[in-house]
């Protein structure tokens, strides 16, 4: 993607590529123009893994793609808010976005949040589940085959099989059985099954709350949990024809098709998103 002589985002595909009925009657370029007119009332939401950061076999090793942090740094002061909405804990997100002013962090699907560098607040209804999650992580390490990776996140446990794809069905079966036994919930993802407390909180609920007073929002995501966030933007737009909501998928071989079908446009990769945001920052600047 590049900027043409008028400074617009050229070569961005029209919204809803691949969909028969456009969900948003704007091109990406028009959407950014509409955003420029109302930037101070618009929120930019980003998923983290697979969206801002390329996937890595080791979940502890990921880093934001080139240009992403610099572009967000330019965009944030122009927008009403910039928020990262992730299944990662807030502390993990803070380590990767520290120093970026005015960025809100929503972790563990919104069970935790921190506004603009402030303290981390945890959803009180989730706190009694910490010991259950710790025990579940220990059990997973003891019972799952070597090759499965257990990620304990205080209020959730992620069971990974990226480095041993043949284990996927067995790991997923084990996780679903344990969730049923303990009265927990599951969230499927990219070569991962996440087990969570039975507390009503997801990315869609976060987005629905934050956009109540906004005039527009963009959501960038790559995984099935992000489709709930898209739906929240659709609901806000359906209730207010003046609201500009844009849902952007980041392509990937696992969940890419399902997410792209729910989105207005698809970007090739986290690195391409870095380019896209850099061009947007120029356009809004
Ligand atoms: O909501 P997100 O920010 O997208 O988090 C979703 C999951 O992301 C991480 O797992 C994914 O990325 C890993 C690192 O690239 C990769 O190894 C794994 O296969 C992916 O599923 C994270 O580790 C999970 O806890 C999140 O649920």
UniProtKB/TrEMBL annotation:
Top-level taxon of origin: Bacteria
Region entry Disordered, spans: 1-23
Cofactor(s) listed in the protein's UniProt record: Mg(2+)
UniProt protein name: Trehalose 6-phosphate phosphatase
InterPro entries per record: HAD-like_sf, HAD-SF_hydro_IIB, HAD_sf, OTSB-like, Trehalose_PPase
Function description: Removes the phosphate from trehalose 6-phosphate to produce free trehalose.
UniProt xrefs under Pfam families: Trehalose_PPase (PF02358)
Keywords: Hydrolase, Magnesium, Metal-binding
UniProt pathway: Glycan biosynthesis; trehalose biosynthesis
Catalytic activity, EC: 3.1.3.12
Biological source species: Micromonospora yangpuensis
GO BP field: trehalose biosynthetic process
Keyword Magnesium: yes
Family membership noted in the UniProt record: Belongs to the trehalose phosphatase family.
Gene3D superfamilies linked to this entry: HAD superfamily/HAD-like (3.40.50.1000), Trehalose-6-phosphate phosphatase related protein, domain 2 (3.30.70.1020)
GO molecular function per UniProt: metal ion binding; trehalose-phosphatase activity
Catalytic activity field: alpha,alpha-trehalose 6-phosphate + H2O = alpha,alpha-trehalose + phosphate
């Amino acid at each position: 993607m590049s900027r043409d002589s008028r400074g617009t985002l050229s070569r961005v595909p029209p919204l809803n590529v691949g969909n028969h009925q456009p969900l948003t009657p704007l091109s990406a370029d028009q959407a950014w123009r509409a955003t420029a007119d109302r930037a101070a009332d618009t929120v930019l939401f980003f998923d983290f893994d697979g969206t801002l950061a390329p996937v890595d076999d080791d979940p502890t090793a990921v880093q934001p793609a080139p240009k992403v942090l610099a572009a967000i740094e330019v965009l944030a002061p122009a927008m009403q808010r910039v928020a990262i909405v992730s299944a990662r804990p807030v502390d993990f997100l803070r380590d990767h976005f520290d120093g970026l002013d005015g960025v809100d962090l929503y972790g563990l699907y919104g069970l935790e949040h921190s506004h603009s560098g402030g303290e981390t607040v945890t959803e009180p209804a989730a706190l009694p589940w910490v010991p259950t999650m710790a025990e579940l992580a220990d059990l997973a390490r003891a019972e799952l085959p070597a090759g499965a990776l257990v990620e304990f996140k205080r209020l959730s446990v992620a069971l990974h099989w990226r480095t041993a794809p043949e284990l996927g069905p067995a790991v997923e079966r084990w996780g679903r059985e344990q969730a049923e036994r303990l009265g927990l919930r599951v969230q499927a993802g990219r070569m991962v099954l996440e087990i969570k407390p039975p507390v009503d909180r997801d990315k869609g609920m976060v987005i629905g709350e934050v956009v109540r007073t906004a005039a527009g929002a963009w959501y960038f995501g790559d995984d099935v949990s992000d489709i709930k966030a898209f739906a929240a933007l659709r609901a806000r737009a359906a209730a207010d024809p003046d609201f500009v909501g844009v849902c952007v998928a980041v392509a990937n071989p696992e969940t890419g098709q399902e997410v792209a079908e729910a989105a207005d446009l698809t970007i090739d990769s986290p690195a391409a998103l870095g380019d896209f945001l850099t061009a947007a920052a120029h356009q809004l600047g």
